[in-house]
Specification:
The complex is a heterodimer.
Chain A: H1 5-14, H2 16-50, E1 55-60, H3 73-80, E2 95-106, E3 113-121, H4 125-128, E4 133-137, E5 146-150, H5 151-156, E6 165-168, E7 171-180, E8 189-193, H6 194-200, E9 208-212, H7 219-228, E10 234-238, H8 239-283, H9 285-293, H10 298-325, E11 331-336, E12 341-346, H11 351-377, H12 381-387
Parallel strand pairs in A: 3-8, 5-7
Antiparallel strand pairs in A: 1-9, 1-10, 2-3, 2-9, 4-7, 5-8, 6-7, 11-12
Chain B: H1 2-11, H2 15-42, H3 44-48, E1 53-58, E2 66-67, H4 70-75, E3 80-88, E4 92-93, E5 102-105, H5 107-113, E6 117-118, H6 121-129, E7 133-137, H7 138-144, E8 151-155, E9 162-173, E10 183-186, H8 187-197, E11 204-205, E12 207-212, H9 218-228, E13 236-240, H10 241-251, H11 253-295, H12 299-335, H13 347-374, H14 377-382
Parallel strand pairs in B: 5-10, 7-9
Antiparallel strand pairs in B: 1-12, 1-13, 2-11, 3-5, 3-12, 4-8, 6-9, 7-10, 8-9
Helix pairs in contact in B: 1-12, 2-11, 2-12, 2-13, 11-12, 11-13, 12-13
Classes of the chains: A alpha+beta, B alpha+beta.
């Protein structure tokens, strides 16, 4: 017969302070674990959502990002003649030749400078990114030094209010609008006319050509044709893959960092649980003897102490997750190593993380409780009763 | 001495519990020390920079080049001693996983600017003679097992193509702060190739490194250089090497802050563990405290005993943790040498370790002491276990 569950609960309640401290230690471990996984998840989600599956990004072969790439005008025109490109509402091909440069801007709070992506766009750039929505002001006129800034840039950088001027490349760029692209990388960009950008920054080449496929399945055909064309030496990637690749290094760093921290920290918490459980066993030697004398089996004693330790772990896990869920309100803006530019992203909680964190807290409880529980179950009735 | 003996005897009454607590503290101090070392590794570039060197780059941002013709104009500015220049090459060795810094530099002036990179005279001469030659730091050479004369191919990301280099010299750092993971080759090699393949990108440099005659002049020299190129097609931004290195750190500030926060979380976790141990210990000894009080010992004596015991446990744990930090940092630094070229435990970190351990020891003893002192003698004597 099993020992009633209420026995465990009451035991935990009697030594409240010990319970709180042990579960609290575990809660902190779960908090760190969940928070770092949420950060890695948020980063990847932001960059994956940035791309659309049907869009193709063409960059120079060998360059890892748009910033490093260069596509001469003639090559860009060759790319734009591909028959697989979808036709837009105006009857023209849905493709855009863009320029990506980094400019340094100062942050609003600290005043320190950081690199921001400035994207020179063509008339089709907006229809290619339906997720981009203007929230204030108007779109820039082509042929002028007008720009629109992403929501995250507007939040964190100086001189990005409407009608402010950003001085860069011997020009004042006037902010005429603010756009929101949701939780995507575009929210951390500044957009202006591509020809003006090429002039101002003295870059006579495009960085990338973006186009939408008329049929999603034709990606292999068009990419094979472009990549094998000896005139071009360009490479094609789906926009989703292109952005996922850019998050790889940082997400990997965060994951490795998170896991190694958690493993080390959990050792501390497991030790805490072990101390608590050993003390629980030692203090209750008499009780254990009585329970055994009443006819409870060794297995029941083992289970009872394990359950108690698992409750500790689970409570800690729930509290840690509860605290971590508040992290979703925080937005982090930092430099992505791979693109060398600023990117804003939020902590994102997924079911997978909840599941992993709870499982992890139960494992901590189990590992901490198993040795003391075995000790409790191995006691001889007579000895246990005598010590009491 | 007697008191110390008493504290030790008390602490080790429950060998298992105290042993586990000490182990827990050791792990926490180890983790704390490693995280702090990571933070200092983040700032390693700042530590290694010199106040006597200036960096001039394009004012728009780092990715824009400056014309090579600026070299002679900068040299004319008073206070300037040496001018060197170079480009961040950003080449990949085999694949993206093998990331290390590689620069194209003007070799003789660059080596003169960096006295902390020690290169033997023979190797320096053979490097200067061979335009396709390169020099690399000892750690980088060890990592890939290169030897003098080895040909290494880098795949260009910014400058397209496959580039062959021959190892002509291995430099050593003068001290631990010097970065031994760099790869440097002739700027002329890059430039001559660019002239042939992409002429519009020839004769341009990514940055100028400037040595000033006296560190006090650095600020003035920086201002005069920038005013020289004001309103030109390529405006410049000149700052000290230290400030330049700090911009990199500040760009990833969020990560540094996260590491710092996390390093305090581990301290709080261990605080919970130790406080728990102390509470259990005092709970069991309430009867003894009542006896001590009956004999006439005051609250201060009991407090001193509990605080002393708590400190004995933390000190032992801290010593163990610090002892483990050095080999751990060595292993960690060797495996992740590509991410953290400079990774060593600073003396400052050890002081942080000690401070954290002492604080934990003191804070953990507060609540149990309060309980032990407040208990009335009769209640204490009546209470069992």
């Amino acid at each position: 017969m099993a020992i009633p569950f209420s026995y465990n609960m009451r035991n935990l309640m009697t030594r409240r302070l010990t319970t709180v401290l042990t579960a609290g230690g575990m809660a902190l471990v779960v908090f760190v674990f969940a928070a770092i996984l949420m950060l890695a998840e948020g980063l990847q989600k932001t960059l994956v959502d940035t791309g659309s599956h049907d869009n193709v990004v063409i960059i120079r072969k060998g360059s890892a990002a748009e910033v490093q790439s260069g596509i001469e005008r003639d090559k860009a025109s060759v790319v734009e003649t591909q028959p697989e490109i979808a036709i837009g509402m105006d009857g023209l091909k849905l493709s855009a030749k863009e320029l990506v440069v980094l400019i340094s801007l100062n942050k609003r709070v600290t005043g320190k400078s950081s690199n921001v992506v400035m994207r020179g766009i063509g008339p089709n750039s907006l229809p290619l990114r339906p997720q981009v929505r203007l929230v204030e002001g108007r779109l820039p006129r082509f042929g002028s030094s007008e720009i629109i800034v992403g929501k995250s840039i507007y939040r964190s950088f100086q001189n990005t209010d409407i009608n402010d001027n950003i001085y860069s490349g011997l020009r004042n760029w006037r902010v005429v609008g603010i756009f929101d692209a949701g939780a995507t990388g575009f929210s951390s960009e500044i957009w202006g006319d591509v020809d003006q950008c090429m002039q101002a920054f003295r870059r006579p080449v495009y960085s990338s050509v973006i186009f939408k496929l008329r049929n999603s399945r034709e990606f292999d055909i068009v990419s094979a044709r472009i990549e094998s064309d000896p005139r071009l030496s360009l490479e094609a990637r789906r926009e989703t893959k292109y952005y996922r690749d850019q998050s790889e290094m940082m997400a990997k760093f965060l994951r490795i960092f998170g896991w190694s921290l958690t493993i080390i920290f959990s050792l501390g918490a497991i030790i805490g649980a072990m101390i608590t459980m050993y003390a629980a066993v030692a203090n209750r030697t008499g009780e254990i003897g009585t329970l055994r004398a009443l006819g409870f089996r060794r297995r029941s004693i083992l289970t009872a102490f394990l359950v108690e330790s698992l409750i500790l772990g689970f409570t800690g896990g729930c509290v840690g997750l509860f605290l971590a869920s508040f992290m979703q309100l925080i937005t982090i803006s930092t430099m992505n190593f791979q693109t060398f530019s600023e990117l804003a992203f939020t902590f994102t909680l997924t079911f997978e993380i909840i599941y992993e964190a709870l499982l992890f807290s139960l494992i901590m409880g189990f590992v901490g409780g198993v040795l003391p529980a075995i000790r409790a179950s191995r006691m001889y009735i007579v000895d246990a009763l005598r010590t009491a | 001495m007697l008191i110390l003996k008493l504290l030790f005897r008390n602490a080790f009454r429950h060998r298992m519990r105290t042993g586990l607590t000490i182990l827990g503290i050791a792990i926490a101090i180890l983790a704390f020390g490693m995280l702090r070392t990571m933070v200092s590794a983040w700032y390693a570039g700042v530590e290694a920079s010199s106040a006597g060197r200036l960096v001039t780059r394009n004012a728009i941002s780092l990715i824009f080049p400056l014309p090579i013709s600026y070299k002679d104009k900068i040299r004319q500015v008073s206070g300037v001693k040496i001018v060197s220049y170079g480009n961040w090459f950003g080449g990949l060795y085999i694949d993206e996983k093998n990331f290390f810094a590689n620069f194209a530099v003007e070799p003789s002036s660059y080596l003169a600017l960096y006295p902390e990179f020690i290169l033997s005279a023979v190797e320096e001469a053979s490097f200067l003679r061979d335009r396709k030659g390169f020099i690399a730091g000892q750690k980088l050479v060890d990592k890939y097992g290169w030897k003098i004369g080895t040909t290494v191919t880098l795949k260009g990301t910014i400058f397209p193509g496959n580039w062959d280099f021959v190892l002509r010299g291995i430099y050593h750092g003068k001290d631990k702060t010097a970065d031994e993971m760099q790869f440097m080759f002739h700027w002329d090699y890059l430039n001559e190739t660019m002239k042939k393949t992409i002429p519009r990108r020839a004769d341009q440099v990514g940055f100028y490194m400037i040595g000033v005659t006296h560190p006090d002049l650095a600020a003035d020299v920086a201002v005069s250089i920038d005013s020289l190129f004001k309103n030109s097609l390529a405006e410049t931004l000149t700052e000290t090497e230290k400030a330049f290195a700090l911009t990199f750190v500040s760009m990833t500030e969020a990560i540094v802050t996260a590491i710092k926060v996390v390093s305090f979380v581990v301290i709080i976790i261990i605080l919970a563990v130790l406080a728990n141990t102390m509470i259990m210990t005092t709970r069991e000894r309430i009867g003894e405290y009542a006896v001590l009080k009956t004999l006439g010992f005051g609250g201060w004596h009991i407090a001193a005993m509990i605080f002393g015991e708590s400190l004995v446990i933390t000190t032992l744990g801290c010593a163990l943790g610090i002892a483990a930090t050095f080999p751990a940092a060595k292993i960690f630094g060797d495996t992740l040498v590509l991410f953290f070229p400079i990774f060593y435990v600073e003396p400052k970190t050890l002081i942080f370790d000690l401070a954290a351990a002492t604080a934990v020891g003191l804070i953990a003893a507060i609540l149990p002491t309060h309980r032990a002192i407040m208990i009335r003698i009769a209640d204490g004597l009546r209470r069992i276990g």
